[in-house]
Design brief:
Length: about 220
């Protein structure tokens, strides 16, 4: 039987990245609200609608309250970065990972970002249940992001035997498919059906080399 390694992207593939952003903004809004007495919902909306200058807008709003001078942009950014995310797997993600595992596929996570952020998301989503420690490849930890050979070669070295079929499932046309396409992997893009992705998808704007071989609307299609 062919050995199958299925590697997944994290942000905007297994969960919706804007949910992480909102979750961070909620944490900051709550802290400012508790100190200032200004409604947390109002502060959250200010931060969200004024991004990327949302924290500045919130600081302006709490001027003249007891919280004035208690917060800086830096302290708010730190609160955001350190927060415990309140996020969920996308529809179909849990059952897909379960079904692939049951079928004997090796599951790998290839994600770009900092250890602190990506580890917090992985924990909040319960992904350690599906991905072995050596199968979690975070760019800050491996020393190479998806535009380098590092995560692709590492996956092949760690999990490949002759004849292994490799698949990468992602969302980002700038970097998720180019290298794996070149290395003979199968590439699958989860379509941004609600236009909620942090990186908008415009497949026609990219050369064929950057595009996936397959596009799906729901992760359960992989089962
Ligand atoms: Mg992504």
């Amino acid at each position: 039987m062919t050995r199958h390694v299925v590697a997944f992207d994290l942000d905007d593939t297994l969960y919706t990245e804007m949910d992480y952003v909102r979750s961070g903004y909620r944490t900051v809004a709550k802290a400012l609200s508790e100190a200032s007495g200004v409604d947390a919902r109002e502060l959250f909306n200010l931060i969200l609608t004024n991004r990327p200058l949302g924290f500045e807008a919130a600081l302006e709003r709490i001027k003249g309250t007891p919280a004035q001078g208690m917060f800086t942009i830096d302290s708010m950014v730190e609160m955001y970065r350190a927060h415990t995310p309140d996020i969920q797997l996308r529809p179909g993600a849990h059952e897909t990972l379960e079904a692939l595992r049951r079928r004997g596929a090796v599951l790998v996570l290839i994600t770009d970002g900092s250890t602190r952020h990506q580890r917090a998301k992985i924990k909040a989503l319960g992904l350690e249940e599906f991905f072995a420690p050596e199968a979690i490849l975070i760019s800050e930890e491996t020393g190479g992001d998806k535009t380098s050979l590092v995560p692709w070669q590492l996956s092949e070295e760690r999990f490949g035997v002759p004849g292994t079929l490799f698949t990468y499932v992602g969302d980002n046309l700038s970097k998720d498919f180019l290298l794996p396409n070149m290395r003979g992997w199968q590439t699958v893009m989860l379509r941004d059906c609600t236009s909620s992705n942090v990186f908008p998808q415009h497949p026609s704007a990219w050369p064929a080399t950057n595009r996936p071989q397959l596009t799906i609307d729901n992760l359960s299609t992989l089962i």
